[in-house]
Amino acid sequence: MAPTVDPRNNDVVNWVNGAFVARYAPAVPVYDAGLMHGKLVWSSPRLVQRRVFRLHDHLYKIRHSAQLNFWPRIPSDEQIIDAIRDTLIRNNMTDGVHIRILLTAGNQITAGMDIANVIDEQGRPSEPRLIIAPEYRTAVYDPSGIRAITSSYLRPGPEMVDQRSHDNNQNASARACYEAKHRGVTTSLMYDAQGHLAEAFASHAGIVRNGKLLTPHVRCCPEGVTRKVILELCAAHGIPAAEADLTRDDVAAADELFIMGTMSGPIAVTTLDDHPVANGDIGPITQKLYDLYHAAMLDPAQSYAILD
Question: What ranges make up the beta strands (E) of 137-250?
């Protein structure tokens, strides 16, 4: 789907380490470690009817990513929650909001990728820089089905570095994104060096075969909150599901193919590489999971009452 512009976002302010700043106002120093050397981790939950869906899963993803990158200081969950709450209240936001939580390692004393450079003038580890950037945003994928290609770019695997960090190193995914857009489709499927499906460029992926959901093992990307929710919904509603190593032949033979991300939940891929997936329609299990996911977003047990 083409990006849409919501005029309400023109007046939204962001939270940067306790200060509210306009959307395009300068707020990060040149010597911020996230800007200078990519020491930035992030996650993006949704605000639905005054509640943040699966907030603590997103906070875990941020903390785990920072730990994987050896950061000496990480704000507490309570500090991040307070910052989110203050930002939502300041912007009078209560529903339909995409909350981008960004955390950098903080200022560094000199240029260089060594985490030992991320210190203040007294030689102490720098205070991390927390940024809360909310925006009004609707679903980014067409729920009636999308087209995809198989990317020519591979996802790096764990034999190189632990890929479960949700950080700012998105080069491979960004190039796969461009490749898909250049081909006039919505997304692209990325494989690893062993020939197994890893993910789509910005979402996890899964197939259905003979009534069973199969999704790749998490080796080449972060674990994914939406993926976790989908597997929980399968377990709760009697839908067989498992992790599996999926080859291109497995994907080509699937009865259903879908991607899953925070903004839209499970979305059917109805065309892959200019060929229909099965009969080219949304499959029954994908549709059921789509309905269950959107119901879960309204379930108080699945969210955090951040404004109440």
Answer: 146-154, 187-191, 197-200, 204-209, 212-216, 241-244
CATH of domain 7-136: 3.30.470.10
Whole-angstrom distance, CA of residue 290 vs CA of residue 265: 6
Q: Model confidence over 102-122: pLDDT tens digits? A: 999 999 999 999 999 999 999
Amino acid at the residue 176? A
Query: Would you list the domain boundaries of the chain?
Result: 7-136, 146-296
| CA–CA distance, 96 with 296 (Å, rounded to integer) | 15
- The 10s digit of each residue's pLDDT in 2-33 is 567 899 999 999 999 999 999 999 999 999 99
* Distance of alpha carbon 263 from the chain centroid: 9
Structure tokens at 109: 């004393």
Tell me the pairing of strands 13-16 and 19-22: antiparallel
- Comparing CA positions, the residue from 220, 193, 192, 196 lying closest to residue 207 is 196
CATH says 146-296 is which class?
alpha beta
Q: Amino acid identity of 56?
A: H
For tokens 């910005």, name the residue. 202
Coil, helix or strand for 166?
coil
In angstroms, the CA 176 to CA 153 distance is 6
* Selected residue with higher pLDDT from 253 and 139: 253
Strand locations in 241-298 (E)? 241-244, 256-261, 265-272, 275-276
Closest CA to 254 of 225, 224, 276, 287: 276
Amino acid at 16: V
Tell me which residue has tokens 């479960």: 164
Say if residues 75 and 61 touch (Cβ distance below 8 Å): no
DSSP state of 117: G
